[in-house]
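Re: beginner question about structure tokens

> Can someone show what the tokenized structure looks like for a real chain? I only ever see the sequence side.

Sure, here's an example I had lying around. Input first:
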Amino acid sequence: MTCREIRKRMAMWARATGREGIAAAEREALAAHLAVCSACAEELRHLALKRVLLQATRAPEADPAPSLYARVSARLRQERSRSVFPFWEVARAFATSVAIVAMLILMLLVGANVYIHRQIPVEPRDFMSALMERNFSEAERVVFAVEDLSQEGVLTALATESRESR
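And the corresponding structure tokens:
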């Protein structure tokens, strides 16, 4: 094995507990490499020392007091007996949603009202001209501009407009 392969596996070997944690073939390859490579041997010694130091500084496991389980169980039963959603929380959530919907509807109505009132001119004369510009074709405007609404008057006005537009 090369130094690179040995160092990749060293952390796993350092965590292994005793000789039974490492396979026999790997143990032989490790021993052969460590006999010829002092850098890898030193690295393995450092990893083993770190493992020993970590185990020495480990805090002892604490056993909980015998009454702890009883206290925790009683507290959990007490919490479960309380209602999850009190009435006032449900009422507040409902009132909030109703208020939001009412505000959105009010904003929609105010916006529609503003839009409609901007479309209608204030003066009646302006309203008629706006209505004519939007809804009537060019020929209808010419016809309504003529005071004589007889057939000859309308045809004459259309012919005159046609000549002028060329």
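Each token stands for a local structural state, so reading them left to right follows the chain. Residues 90 and 96 are 10 Å apart (CA to CA).
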